[in-house]
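# nightly structure sweep
# worker-07 picked up a monomer target from the shared queue
# config: single-sequence mode, recycle default, output format = structure tokens
# input follows
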Amino acid sequence: MPPLLPTANAGATTRPEIMPLGEDPADREAIAGPLAAVEALLRQPRRVVYWARQGSAGRLTGILFAIALVCSLLYGIVVGTFSLNAQLWAAPLKVAGGFFLSALICLPSLYIFACLSGARVRVSEVCGLIAGLLALMTILLVGFAPVAWIFSQSTQSLPAMGALHLMFWAIATYFGVRFLQHGFSHFGGRPAGLRVWSLIFVLVMIQMTTALRPLVGTADSFLPGEKKFFLSHWVEELQK
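# output follows
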């Protein structure tokens, strides 16, 4: 008699992406500090999600926010090297402020959408996942920073530099949102609400780049005095 073929579900419970959090011993390894948190975000996102659900998650959330702050400031310095002068301190403040303001603005709606989708989640857990989202995005931006610096020193085209930074931001956002979706997949909610929130988050961050302009060019004041929609701002910049 020939051996029975394995069914489609055979071994499904051993796949790490659908295994309940904590069943894999690697999930329970403590995240001791910033370097361990960076490694876990890049290599073992399940580990970050697991510890974000524990009672001591506040420390990890603080570490992730600190990583996001440092990395966003570093990338902001690279953004400022295109125009130099005041942008060397203004751009880092605006980049870091844009990330954290966008997260703060979108945090209540994320919790609401998570609850409406049926996810069993607490506010502290949502804060932990948002911190992971920002940390992963800014880590990726720091990885792109040498490339951005080379272009900032070899071109004077403001639209080209703006498009390059926007491309790097889009890539970082994709992976950050993917981490968030992976995290919420362990909370039992439906993904539709999270997709809507992801679109809102992207729009808020794009508008923030216009509200805090200029990030790449120069201006007479730290913040603009005129309100603009981001599409109008982009069209005006391309016509210069």
